[in-house]
Amino acid sequence: MTTTMNLTLKTPSEAGLTWAVTRNENARTDADREAILADPGFGNHFTDHMVDICWSEKGGWHRPRVSPYGPIPLDPAAAVLHYAQEIFEGLKAYRHADGSIWSFRPYENAARMQRSARRMALPELPVSYFIDSLKQLIAVDGSWVPSAAETSLYLRPYMFAKEAFLGVRPAKKVAYYVIASPAAAYFPGGVEPVNIWLSTTYARAGKGGTGAAKTGGNYASSLLPQAEAYEKGCQQVAFLDPAGNLEELGGMNIVLVRRDGTLLTPESDSILEGITRDSILQLAADRGHVVERRPIALSEWRDGAASGEIVGAFACGTAAVVVPIGRLLAEDFEILHHGDEASELALSLREELTGIQYGRVEDRHGWMARLDA
Length: 373
Ligand SMILES: *Cc1c(COP(=O)(O)O)cnc(C)c1O
Hints:
Blueprint lengths: L7 E5 L5 E5 L7 H9 L10 E8 L3 E9 L10 H5 L2 E3 L2 E5 L5 E4 L1 H14 L7 H15 L10 E10 L11 E11 L10 E5 L17 H16 L4 E5 L5 E4 L3 E6 L4 E3 L9 H12 L4 E3 L4 H10 L2 E8 L3 E9 L4 E3 L3 H18 L10 E3 L3
Parallel strand pairs: 2-4, 10-11, 10-17, 14-15
Antiparallel strand pairs: 1-2, 3-4, 3-9, 5-8, 6-7, 6-8, 7-19, 8-9, 11-12, 13-14, 13-16, 16-17, 17-18
The structure holds pyridoxal-5'-phosphate.
InterPro entries: Aminotrans_IV (IPR001544), Aminotransferase-like (IPR036038), B_amino_transII (IPR005786), BCAT-like_C (IPR043132), BCAT-like_N (IPR043131), BCAT_family (IPR033939)
Enzyme class: transferase
GO molecular function, one term: branched-chain-amino-acid transaminase activity
């Protein structure tokens, strides 16, 4: 008879946590992993381990673990299943030419997760624990970071209310997890402009709502309008605020390009502040572009496109990085952009940003953080 014992090792970390690390005895073989990494798609495959940290009102953050990837035991009354008290983050691990593994501005993700937590009445995970959790996962699953051009290991930290209680109040028991999923190049055949459907029937978020928090509910409410977008032949949906100002897409921010090279992007307390957008705008500012962050009426885009004042637009987010918008389709009008100038700018900013992320371009802002050391 053979028995497999899952050995658990206690591993102290720089952040002052003592991790209980249990290796997955059924981890994929090198050959199986390589087969997955050769064609990973997005969000289909997960690595051999996961990380979690518990939180309770009494005990604070405790019991940090690295365990074999697998189902989470959850009470049917867990508050997240009923009241959606949940937040998440998304960032990538990039393999550089020398084999080292890096992430891009993870401290920004950590800080944003704290802001999301405050809005959703969840506990704030200390920034050092957030960074530590990524490093712990990479320590056991680093071989899952692919090396082909523009591929990455997508890291998904998330937190949810696990207390079994149907009363409506912030949960007193919460779980934080990190899982990881290898991701293929987003545009294997070269970056293609997207068509966007402008939803006027549905809103993504309201004033004082949860639009600025990275929370599942915002995504749940975007699924129906997203389905409408597909029906109209569009890949993404754009939302407006009640005053008719431009907000963002379901999961990406929007930037407009003016003829004089000025970049315009909505400022609003009901959109999610993307780290990709912030970085792209910084790179553009470094090149001398003027950047305006302010409320932008849809009419400014529409009239500007008609007069030639607005020459293009692009969307940005971690998954796709930057993608030019070819067409905005609405119920009773459309905006077409085939401005080469704006696409070229979007693509060259994309090239510079991915160059920094993959270690080909100097990281002059100190954005990269090493995960495997
Ligand atoms: C995550 C997200 C973005 C993009 O943020 P990045 O930090 O650039 O990945 C934009 N909009 C929404 C709604 C998001 O959830």
